[in-house]
Amino acid sequence: MMGPDAWPTASLLRRRSCPMARRVLVEQSQVVVSNNPEEVLEARGIASCVAVCVHDARARAGGIAYIMMPSSLVEDEGCPAGAFADRAVRTLMSQMATKEASSENCQITLVGGAEMLGATASDAVSGLGRRNIQAVESLLRTRRLGVANRHLGGHRARDVGLRIADGQIAVAER
Amino acid sequence: MRAGIRLPVLPHVAAAVIEVADSPRASADDLREAMSTDQALVAKLLRVVNSPMYSPRQPVTTVTHAIAFLGFESVRNLALAASFSDVLTSGAAGYGLEPGQLWSHSVAVGCATKLLSEAAKYPQPEEAFLAGVIHDVGKLVLSVNMEREYGGAFAGRGSGDRPFDEAERACLGFCHAEAGAAVASDWGLPKLLCDAIRWHHSLDANGSGLLTHLVHVGDAIGLVLGYGIGRDGLEYRFCRGALQALGVGDQQLAGLMAAVPRAVRRIAGSRT
Questions:
Q1: Residues of chain B contacting A29 with CB distance shorter than 8 Å
Q2: Could you tell me which chain A residue has the CA closest to the CA of B252?
Q3: Which distant-in-sequence residues (6+ apart) come within 8 Å of B147 by Cβ?
Q4: E strand or H helix at B269
Q5: Which end of chain A is more exposed for a tag (fewer CB within 10 A), N or C?
Q6: Which residues of chain A does B261 touch, with a Cβ-Cβ cutoff of 8 Å?
Q7: What are the extents of the domains in chain A?
Q8: Phi and psi (nearest 5°) for A16?
Q9: What pTM, to 2 d.p., does this model score?
Q10: Looking at this predicted complex, what is its ipTM?
Q11: Phi-psi category of A113—alpha, beta or left, where left has phi over 0 and alpha has psi -120 to 50?
């Protein structure tokens, strides 16, 4: 059984210069941004969803958007900002701006987009991962935001941790 | 198939609720009486009834009120689903699931299946919720009884493109869906529910009923959204015909998938 130390953030939390680091859990459809160097943001069980992880080393700020679906075609006022890729990316970048981060300095890592066996992009359920990847990459291109690292696709769920102090990322497949 | 397998014990209150369900003369009072010995169960039931899946105008605070709000059969099915929470909350280490993760997956699939059932105009949405909640009970059986065999049989099998249930069958002679159906039958659950558990990964293998289609799609939604994913990951095949059989379009599907996290948070608490 996986204990708490088996999660990828465990290594990030052990940083000597940051002994008081604490985990902040980011759940599906949430956008969380921080400039607290003692925090490690963590998104767990990312399957077909895509976690967009952003960090600006100069501003020492970072954030994660845990995106569930490609676009906000669905009229649902109650849906959190991070549920859909278009709203989530917009919210993530505007919240990063409030922490004095700039687009030019942002390092972006994408995690998730797994799919079921034999999935096709036309399939709203089994192909959700592929659709999410396409939507997120397209949105980032439009904003001229480059992606530094990708942990995408496959058939396994992933966990990701982002250390605010220095932007270190840890990814583990389940 | 069941030789050497120790079946989980049916929760006492669940047995009492099933007894009420089996009696044609059972009344709302009988159901309330059956649940009266377990206030934690009553609290769980009320959490479901007050969740965004129902959004009552006034908070529902008693079993009697819940029955008046939803009806006897609906509350009976919800009570049964809630009564399995303790069983399903334990870990399933053989599947790489920490305590709470199987319950998280069960609730997510229950919510998704229930929301789908409404879109598909299935007459008993709470029956769909119950089926979704207990669909993976077989993982508990196989995890508890065969953890070592799993480690050995599945070690190094790679990601491959063979569905996990087929790998289970090849290694063990049966899969978690079959084990789950055996448990459900042993517990005295209706055949319709046992069939939905048995065939939720194998829609093409029989002329599956609507409830099985609902659980198949609900399970896929729980998986792709990342609820309670273990070492089997997303290694299952999705039957596209299921959505056609249910008559649920992409737009409807997107709307109900977006609603799942809120319902899960209210019922199961924070995701693990």
A1: 258, 261
A2: A74
A3: B93, B94
A4: none
A5: N
A6: 27-29, 68, 80, 83
A7: 22-156
A8: -60, -40
A9: 0.88
A10: 0.88
A11: left
Q: Does B253 touch chain A (CB under 8 A)?
A: yes
* Contact: A125, B238; criterion CB under 8 Å: yes
SS3 B267: helix
CB < 8 Å to B90, chain A: none
Distance, in Å, from the CA atom of A149 to the CA atom of A108, rounded to the nearest integer, reads 7
Determine the Cα–Cα distance for residues A104 and A123; give it in Å rounded to an integer. 35
Minimum distance, in Å, between the CA of residue A66 and any CA atom of chain B: 10
pLDDT tens profile A129-155: 999 999 999 999 999 999 999 999 999
Contacting residues for B32 by C-beta, under 8 A, at least 6 apart: B63, B64, B67
Most B CBs within 10 Å, among A28, A49, A87, to test the B interface: A28
Residue type, B37: T
Give kind and range of the element (H or E) at residue B134: helix B125-134
B113-128 per-position pLDDT tens digit: 999 999 999 998 999 9
Q: Does residue B121 sit at the A interface (CB-CB below 8 Å)?
A: no
B206 pLDDT tier (thresholds 50, 70, 90): low
Whether residue B252 is predicted with pLDDT greater than 60 in this model: the reply is: yes
| B70 part of contact set with chain A, CB < 8 Å | no
Please name the member of A49, A80, A124 whose beta carbon is closest to the beta carbon of B253: A124
**Per-residue CA distances from B192 to A27, B10, B114, B196, B224 (Å):** 34, 18, 16, 6, 26
Q: Cβ of A78 and B262 within 8 Å?
A: yes
**Which range among A77-81, A149-153, B11-15, B188-192 shows the weakest confidence by mean pLDDT?**
A77-81
DSSP lists the bridge partners of residue A151 as: A111
User: Does B269 contact A at CB distance below 8 Å?
Assistant: no
Question: Hey, is the C-beta of B256 within 8 angstroms of any chain A C-beta?
Answer: no
- The CB density around residue B99, as the number of other CB atoms within 10 Å, is 13
How would CATH label the architecture of B12-268? Orthogonal Bundle (1.10)
Structure-derived torsion over alpha carbons of residues B160, B163, B168, B174, reported in degrees to the nearest 10: -150
Torsion of CA A171, A116, B253, B120, to 10 degrees: -140
Provide the residue ranges of all domains of chain B, joining segments of one domain with +: 12-268
Using CB atoms, pick whichever of A2, A80, A154 lies closest to residue B98.
A2
CATH of span A22-156: 3.30.1330.200
